[in-house]
Amino acid sequence: MEITVVHGDITHQRVDAVVNAANRAMRGGGGVDGAIHAAGGPAVLQECVERFPRGLATGEAGWTTGGDLPARWVIHVVGPNHRAGERDRALLTSCYARALQVADELGAGRVAFPLVSAGIYGWPKDDAVAAALETLAAAETAVAEARLVAYDRGTYELIRQSLSTT
């Protein structure tokens, strides 16, 4: 699998699936979650309600339609909330591993990922990047491209530099 990084908006990525950093309720929220729900339209929320009536556990993944997004699917993952005391790194790495498993089940060859838990959930950015790259690099998957999408320039540069040293 090729791991790439781009500076941009995850809702504009022309890939098979985008990964959503969701909350446990799976009903939309802020940050990446809010942006994906807004850009994907009501179909994304409707499927979340139907497919995940009780939400999803931290570290887990599930999928819905991409709705109005350029991507066919949204793979929702629930990252740990570092600010709320969820500091088990295995929950963070599970988000990437489970997202790839779901992508394989769907037959998604190109998947765009945000930096899970590094925004409002407060996971230290250096470790969030390391966890993402370590997990993606070690994965056994049919996914051809895992694209890390950084919304801001600083995060893009951090991922780019980390990727060049791995």
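[next item in queue]
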Amino acid sequence: MRLSFTISRFNPETDTQPRTESFRLDVGRGTTVLDALLRLKQEQDGSLAFRHSCRSAICGSCAMDINGSEKLACRTSVWTEWERHSAITVAPLRNFPVIKDLVVDMSSFWGKIRDITPWLSASTQRQASELQGLRSSASGFHNVDACIMCGACVAACTVLEVSKGFLGPAALAKADRFMADAREPAAARQGRLMVLEQPDGIWDCTRCNYCVEVCPKDVRPMEAIIRLRRAALDAGMTATGGARHITGFTDLIRSQGRLNEALMPLKIVGLRLTQVLRVLPLGLAMLRRGKVPNPFGHAIPGMASVRQIFAATSRTAGRS
């Protein structure tokens, strides 16, 4: 079948902005997007630039935007894409500077990986029995060690669209892998969390879930970020706005059985006068719109059950 391919092109020597160019190619049912790109380069335009290597979904080199979603070109069927979208559009990964055509500059990606210290902080001598225990603890990595560094999750991240300093899902998932490693000393874990809870770290994720959707290896970076948040809270790191949001939300449900939207902003900003004055207009607007519960109203039914749930959760957490 002869299909049309619309490919983003950019030559820094002649172009000021990316443009699109269309090609037509005869393809069969087993053709992948990478197969098609290789043929287009060989048969129609030798200047077409893109990355590839293993052609087996192992190296991650051929990650690109295919029909609006981040995918590995080597494992993406042309036929399936055509049946779903009636088109084949190929563009470089988003959130990265374009070097040429479909090739992007991954320098920021690797820089953020280095920022989370992607190695164990210390090595110690272990007995054979201890090493066996460490090997059995690999399940605690939650598959984050399966990451192939393709950058698809970073390209899909909505936070990075507006905040380039955000560490990003790949780096934070890698940090979770070292937090879960039994060989990492407790003091080193504490140090990692102190770095990760800073601005542009674990609390900046908006939990849009796009990183989970596009990951070709089921790493689930957002879940790794949530585990890091829990670890930070368990370590008593509750000073940041994100941490205060979670602890404040929990306190309100425990005490009132529901979310009190009038008190929630105060739980986040604390009792600092300047911050209270900033959220005061919001509180007045909520009062006008009936969003402030009557402080003299009756308690909601089932409060005893709510408190029992919290008590049971605390006991379970204590045993674990």
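[queue empty]
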